[in-house]
Amino acid sequence: MSFRRMLKGASGRSLSAKQPESDEQSKEITVHPETNNPTRVWDTIRYKQKVDVVTPVDPATPKPKDHVRFVCISDTHSKTDRIPDIPDGDVLIHAGDFTKICRRKEVKNFNDFLGHTRFVCTSDTFSKTTYLSKVVPPGDVFIHAGSFNNVGLPREVSAFNEFLGTLPHRHKIVIAGNHELTFDQQLMTERNSHVFMSFASAFEGLKTNEWKDIRSLLTNCTYLEDSEIQVMGFRIYGSPWQPVFCDWGFNLPRGQPLLDKWNKIPEGTDILITHGPPLGHGDLASNGCRAGCVELLSTVQRRVRPKYHVFGHIHEGYGVTTDGQTTFVNAAICDVHYRPCNPPIVFDLPTPRVPTVEAESSV
Ligand SMILES: [Zn+2]
C-alpha cells in the first residue's frame, strides 16, 4: 500500500494532538486519539524519536561466522523476471505485494520463482568475454561447456577467470573443451599433437609449472573434469572428451576409449555437461555429417538418463532438443565462423531442497 493511500483514510478530526505522558510510557498500548492522522501524530512526537539512517550490509561481503544472513525484498508485483539476482543468504523474506492483482497464475508464477533454480548455459566462447558480459542473464547456476579460450595460454585462462568473477551467479561450473590445450596434461606432456605443434610459437617459453597447474587459475568457478559436484540439490557431472577432431585437446578415438570415459558418469546425474554432443542432438555439422558420439547417446538414453545434457563443440548445432526423457542443450555461443552471435540458453528446474550456504562447496 502506498503512503498516499494511507493518508486518504485520515479522518481529519481535530483532537488533542498529544497523548498524556503517562499513556505514552505505559506498556499497555491504547489507540492514539489521532491515529487517523499519522502525519500530525509524528509532528507531535518526532522531537523525542530517533531515526538514524542505517547502511545495509553489502551483499558482496562475506557473512560473519556464526551469523544468519537475511535477504529482504518486497513489492515485486510479478516482475520476477526483472528482479536483479537475489544475493546469497540463509533466509529470504518477501514483505508483500508479490503480485499485481493476485491472479491465480501470478501466485503460481511467484511460487515457481521461489522454488526453481535457474541454469544459464554457454559454450564455445573463445575469449569473447566482452560479448558474453552483455548477454549473460542472471540466474543461480552458470554453466560453461568448454572452449572458453583459444589455446589455453595462462593469460587467456586468467582473463576468463576474471570475467567469471564479475558474474552474479551463485554457482559457476566450467569444463574444458578441445581448445583448452593446456588442460590436457597428456597432450602437453607428449607435445606431439599437430595442433600443439602448429601453435608452438604461442607456447614458446611456457614453463612446465605454468601448465601443470593451469586449473588453479580458475578460482572463480568449480572446474569439473570427469568429476561431479552437487549444487542446490542437483547432481552435476562434467567431462571434456570428444571424438578425435583435428588432434585438438581431450580428443579420443570413437568407440571403447570414449565409452570408458562415459562409464564414469554416475547414474542419478541430473545435469550432464560434456564438451561434445551425443549423436543426433545438436551435432549436425555444416558439411552434412553427424559429429555426435554414438556411445554418449547410448549412455545418456539407457543408463544415466539425466534431466538435461548440456554441451557445445558443433557451433552450427546451437539449440535445444529432447527425446522425451532428456533435454539436450547445445549452448555454443559462437557460430561456425567463430563470431559470437547466440544468446546463452536458460532453463529452470524445481529446486530439490532449500539450499544452505554451509552445506555446499560453491564459488
Ligand atoms: Zn569444441
Please specify the SSE layout and strand pairing.
Layout: H1 3-8, H2 21-25, H3 38-45, E1 70-73, E2 91-94, H4 104-115, E3 116-122, H5 129-135, E4 141-144, H6 154-166, E5 171-174, H7 185-190, H8 194-198, H9 200-203, H10 208-212, E6 222-223, E7 227-231, E8 234-239, E9 242-243, E10 251-252, H11 256-262, E11 271-274, H12 294-304, E12 308-311, E13 319-322, E14 327-330, E15 345-350
Parallel strand pairs: 1-2, 3-4, 4-5, 5-6, 8-11, 9-10, 11-12, 12-14
Antiparallel strand pairs: 3-15, 7-8, 13-14
* Dominant shape: elongated
Question: What small ligands are held by the chains?
Answer: zinc ion
Structure classification = alpha/beta
What is the CA–CA distance across the termini?
39 Å
Helical content, roughly? 10-25%
Can you tell me the CATH topology of the largest domain? Purple Acid Phosphatase, chain A, domain 2
Taking pLDDT < 50 over at least 5 consecutive residues as the criterion, the unreliable ranges are 1-17, 354-363
Taking strands numbered 1, 2, ... along the chain, how are they ordered across the largest sheet?
Answer: 7-8-11-12-14-13
Mean of the pLDDT scores?
A: 88
Q: How many strands, what sense, and barrel or not for the largest sheet?
A: 6 strands, mixed
Oligomer: single chain
Task: Tell me the β content.
Answer: 15-25%
Give the number of DSSP strands.
15
Radius of gyration computed on alpha carbons? 28 Å
Domain Calcineurin-like phosphoesterase: 118-316
Organism: Strongylocentrotus purpuratus
GO molecular function, one term: hydrolase activity
Region (Disordered): 1-37
